[in-house]
């Protein structure tokens, strides 16, 4: 009987460890990665703004300024929404963060295409930042699919 | 027996997640960003940082081309 009690205790302990191993460490790692992803996306948008600033200062072309704001401002708003979702980190906010990150990347894609159409060369460091941001947003797309997707 | 099966399933899920994170962290910029959020800053909000960074960048563009006018 004592042996059975001991076995039961060990079984309960193992079950408790199993349940904590599925929730706590992966969730905190995923949240850390999501925070990193949001910062990478924000960094890419800031670099996009910087490219436009340099071009407008050199040429004085106000139409490029307006176009850049039109492409980057929506991406900026979605990235801030994604950051809010990551900070709250509830089931619904995770979905919102995933969808907002996806929309931010769509905005960056429009910026990249628009800049190329204007004949403005995108420097390799900015291209690398855009690629990183896209890769991370894709990795977090399942959060959008799993959540409620209130950002779009 | 169920407990052992459950443990094996949990370990497989955790391993898949870790593999995915490891693949993401291969990119230098991502590695750098991740490092800031797994240690002392693990519970710090990211929104104020993002908001300040992007609002400043936007303001810089709005002011671009106006110098000397």
Keyphrases for this structure?
heterodimer, A: 152 residues, mainly alpha, 5 helices, 88% helix, elongated, disordered N terminus, B: 69 residues
What does this 3D model show about the protein?
- The complex is a heterodimer of chains A (152) and B (69).
- Chain A contains five helices and no strands.
- In chain A, helix 1 (2-59) packs parallel to helix 3 (91-117) and helix 2 (62-88) packs antiparallel against helix 3 (91-117).
- Residues 1-26 of chain A have low confidence and may be disordered.
- Chain A has helices spanning 2-59, 62-88, 91-117, 124-139, 141-146.
- Chain A starts with a helix and ends in a 6-residue tail after the last helix.
- Chain A is mainly alpha-helical and 152 residues long.
- The longest helix of chain A has 58 residues, at 2-59.
- Chain B is mostly helical.
- The longest helix of chain B is centred in the first third of the chain and has 23 residues, at 2-24.
- The model of chain B is unreliable at 10-17 (pLDDT under 50).
- At the A-B interface, helix 1, helix 2 and helix 4 of A face helix 1, helix 2 and helix 3 of B.
Question: Secondary-structure map with pairings?
Answer:
The complex is a heterodimer of chains A (152) and B (69).
Chain A: H1 2-59, H2 62-88, H3 91-117, H4 124-139, H5 141-146
Helix pairs in contact in A: 1-2, 1-3, 1-4, 2-3, 3-4
Chain B: H1 2-24, H2 28-35, H3 47-63
């Amino acid at each position: 009987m004592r042996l059975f009690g001991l076995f039961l205790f060990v079984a309960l302990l193992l079950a408790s460890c199993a349940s904590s191993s599925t929730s706590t460490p992966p969730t905190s790692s995923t949240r850390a990665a999501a925070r990193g992803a949001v910062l990478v996306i924000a960094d890419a948008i800031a670099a996009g703004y910087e490219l436009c600033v340099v071009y407008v200062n050199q040429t004085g072309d106000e139409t490029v300024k307006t176009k850049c704001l039109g492409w980057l401002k929506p991406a900026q708003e979605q990235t801030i929404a994604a950051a809010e979702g990551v900070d709250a980190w509830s089931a619904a906010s995770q979905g919102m963060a995933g969808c907002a990150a996806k929309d931010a990347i769509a905005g960056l894609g429009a910026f990249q295409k628009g800049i190329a159409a204007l004949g403005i060369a995108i420097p390799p460091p900015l291209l690398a930042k855009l690629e990183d941001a896209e890769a991370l947003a894709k990795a977090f797309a399942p959060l959008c699919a799993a959540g409620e997707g209130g950002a779009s | 027996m169920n407990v052992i099966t459950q443990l094996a399933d949990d370990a497989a899920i955790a391993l898949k997640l870790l593999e995915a994170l490891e693949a993401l962290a291969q990119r230098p910029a991502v590695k750098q960003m991740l490092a800031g959020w797994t240690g002392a800053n693990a519970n710090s909000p990211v929104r104020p940082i993002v908001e300040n960074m992007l609002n400043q960048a936007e303001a810089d563009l709005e002011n671009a081309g106006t110098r000397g006018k």
